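Please predict the structure of the following assembly.
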Amino acid sequence: MTEPTPLDREQLQPIAVSLGQRATAGNQSSPPSFTDCPTCGARPAALDISISDDTIVIRFLRCGHVVTADRAEFYELCRAAFQPPDKEGP
Ligand SMILES: [Zn+2]
């Protein structure tokens, strides 16, 4: 059993970005891959994300490492990451 690793904002951002890219990739046949596990560097097959109180718990499936992050911070990063890349013109 591995202890969960708390992530800081800098480590959390690429995870939020990869989730955003996958969410906005639509029905592409090969969606962008997830960010590598910050603990062991393995490319995850899937992420299992759960929320407990003010903490987000992310399990990297395959290697099984678990990381935690502040919920408000994760939401904030995801909100930014989920914006479509093309900006509105004036
Ligand atoms: Zn790992």
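The first strand starts at residue 5 and ends at 6. Residues 9-24 form the longest helix (16 residues).
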